[in-house]
Amino acid sequence: MIAVCTAVTAANIYLAAPLLPLIAHDFGSTPSAVAWLASVAQFGYATGLLFFAPLGDRVNRRRLVAVLSLVAAVALLAGAAAGGTYALAGAVLIASAATVVPQLLVPLVAERAPAHRRASHVAAVIAGLFTGVVAARVVGGLAGQAFGWRAVFVGAAVLTTLLGLATAFVLPRETRRRGGPLFAGLTALPGVVRHSPDLWRACVRQAGMYGAWSALWTSLALLLTETDGYGMTTAAAGLFGLFGLAASVVAPLAGGLVDRFGAAKVVRSAYVVAAVSVPLFWLGGHVMAALCAAAVLVHAALVASHVANQTVALTATSAPATANTAYVVAGFAGGAIASALAGTAFSHWGWGGVCVVAGAALVLGWTATLARRR
């Protein structure tokens, strides 16, 4: 149930990305002019994480999951009724801020898993998360082409309500486990990261990895649908997201590798795979086979890195929910910044500019942690 709920709620963050051409047409704009909506969703998610995810160390998660699911659903319905880009952006921001349910549930799974199988258990939930990301692109693109982008938002609201409330119902009952102010976890974030080099390294490396993936994946609909690119329909471009299923397949494998060989080796290997995918993405601007191969590689690299880094984050301190908040906020902040830069790069320099942004994110993520280690 946790994995399924994670899939449905995570899909909300990426709901707008495959629908950008339809949204632009509806509002009388161009897809590149509304590409910033994808960044709004990620900034909203990062903001929600800062305020809500640390509460997992302090409050009953059942009630929090139910409330946040309802808030996200209401915001999605407001987005479906939006009459302009800015109203839609506000709705997407609120919906994404409330879509932090997966990061309330992952620490719960890590706490209850046996130590020698912790990464495998976390990987099962992460597989659900990436399945939701793929579904947002594939199902969202197909449904948007058939029924319009507003119907997709309504459907997401219904699913979020049903799965969120069902998951809240089956979660174990908990009592408040930590004293002090309700949002003490938020103020403790800087200190937690500063006093844990392992957590800091996991945060920075995942920010670089997620930045590279986000720059490429949120801009891909523009390459696939614009006449200067492949000129596909929204539905056809959405089907391209099926390559993201590589993440769902890799996640359990990565969990086993982390349990057996350790997180550091898995992260190093993931960065190598991601570095190979960037020039393939650049070539994929003109060669479809290269684009397909790059899509598989970058998803495999992202999920392997995520499983390894998140396992480290969840075990690096005595406050797993707070540490997990720092980790996921760092990742999504990197993704949001890279998405914003990629949208601008695509407008000015085309697909090659997007690939440069992705490569720069990987370089920064890796070299920054090397400097800290020395």
What this model shows, in words?
- It contains 16 helices and no strands.
- 60% of the residues are buried.
- The protein is globular and about 55 Å long.
- It is mainly α and 374 residues long.
- It has helices at 2-11, 20-26, 36-52, 61-80, 85-98, 101-112, 118-147, 149-170, 184-194, 197-225, 234-239, 245-261, 263-283, 288-315, 320-349, 351-373.
Features:
single chain; 374 residues; mainly alpha; 16 helices
Q: State the share of residues found in helices, binned by percent.
A: over 70%
* Rounded mean pLDDT score: 84
Assembly type: single chain
Taken from the alpha-carbon principal axes, the silhouette is globular
Radius of gyration (CA) equals 19 Å
The residue ranges in which pLDDT falls below 50 over 5 or more consecutive positions are none
* Amino-to-carboxy terminus distance: 43 Å
Strand content: under 5%
* Total number of strands: 0
Largest sheet composition:
none
Structural class determined from secondary elements: mainly alpha
SSE pattern: HHHHHHHHHHHHHHHH
Helix and strand topology:
Layout: H1 2-11, H2 20-26, H3 36-52, H4 61-80, H5 85-98, H6 101-112, H7 118-147, H8 149-170, H9 184-194, H10 197-225, H11 234-239, H12 245-261, H13 263-283, H14 288-315, H15 320-349, H16 351-373
Helix pairs in contact: 1-7, 1-8, 3-5, 3-15, 4-5, 4-8, 6-7, 6-15, 7-8, 7-12, 7-14, 9-15, 10-13, 10-14, 10-15, 10-16, 12-13, 12-14, 13-14, 13-16, 14-15, 15-16
Short description:
This protein has 374 residues and is mainly alpha-helical.
